[in-house]
Amino acid sequence: MQVVAGSSSPLLAKRIADKMGAEILNTVLKRFPDGELYVRVENAGGDVVVVQSITSNEDLVYLMLLLDALEGSNITAVIPYMGYARQDKKFKDGEAISIRAVAKLIESYAERVITVNIHSDRAKRYFRNLVDVDAMPIIGTYYRNRDIVMISPDFGSYERVRVASEFAGCEFDYLEKERIDAETVEIKPKKLEVAGRDVVIVDDIISTGGTMIEATKILLKSGARSVECACVHAVLAENALNRLYSAGVKGVIATDTIEKSISKISVADLIVDALKSD
Ligand code: R5P
Asked: Which domain holds residue 59?
């Protein structure tokens, strides 16, 4: 098996290749003066794994070109962060279903696709042969033996946080919106008392950080002693990290599906297991 490290995932690709005992193919990735991208992959053949997260439009074009350069190989596309998955239906008439377009593109080249915590079950349905790996157990394990409470910022991440808390061996809860009267909405933990506790908010994605910041404010107001944030995918748009720290967050960690300074946990073992299980 050969591994191609895409522009957005060089470190994770190396970790996967090392664990598989696989060769990393030499690639040329460059930009022409007019902004167009160029890709060359040397000596590909047989079973090839391409590792490329989609964190930007440029990543998507590089992915498309890498897949095309591998014509004739048996391709597995490892897309640790599957961007465009949040637009998984038509919210308004006339909209594109972005993840459907991305799925069609990838599967027109790749035999199988491996990703990590894709945003929704609905997004999965647009793929023919997708393995969606769950990073919540390794996030939970990272916090094992810490005296913490895990909180989901909303009901949408309840199941994810339930799994993480099981591996952390701690209590968990989610923030619930309660309408008090026509003008007042109160958001608070559904059942747990967080006063005096160290809290870790867990979610799949930190993009602008808005969700985590709101949750942090509520938890600190409820008397939490400290608040940390953990996520699978550190998109970190719009100075999210600065804004999180300014809001009083003590620490932020993520996996390496998107390679950032806070990527303290690697999904390499999970991806290698998925690669071997087929
Ligand atoms: C929402 O459905 C997701 O689970 C995340 O909560 C959301 O994508 C986070 O985005 P942001 O950081 O911009 O609030």
From this structure: 2-134+267-276
Token pair 């490290």: residue? 5
Kindly tell me if the per-residue pLDDT of 189 is higher than 90.
no
Catalytic residue among 177, 191, 221, 276: 177
pLDDT > 90 in the chain, percent: 90
Residue 176 CA to ligand 1 centre (angstroms): 16
Q: What is the 3-state secondary structure (H, E, C) of 95-144?
A: CCCHHHHHHHHHHCCCCEEEEECCCCHHHHCCCCCEEEECCHHHHHHHCC
CB 27 within 8 A of CB 70: no
Assess whether the C-beta atom of 214 lies below 6 angstroms from ligand 1: no
Q: Tell me whether residue 233 is in a domain.
A: yes
Instruction: Judge whether 168 lies within some domain.
Output: yes
Contact, 85 vs 120, CB < 8 A?
yes
* 190 among known catalytic residues: no
Q: Is the CB of 251 under 6 A from ligand 1?
A: no
Q: How far is the CA of 42 from the centre of ligand 1 (A)?
A: 38
- For residue 190, name the pLDDT band (cuts at 50, 70, 90): confident
Does residue 7 sit in the same domain as residue 129? yes
CA distance 185 to 11: 44
Residue 207 alpha carbon, nearest atom of ligand 1: 12
Does residue 262 fall inside a structural domain?
no
At residue 87, φ and ψ (nearest 5 deg) are: -90, 80
Write out pLDDT tens, residues 31-85.
999 999 999 999 998 999 999 999 999 999 999 999 999 999 999 999 999 999 9
Tell me, using a 6 A CB cutoff, whether residue 152 lines ligand 1: no
C-beta of 205 in contact with ligand 1 (< 6 A): yes
Q: Name residue, tokens 């996520």.
A: 231
Among residues 140, 136, 153, the alpha carbon closest in space to that of 232 is found at 136
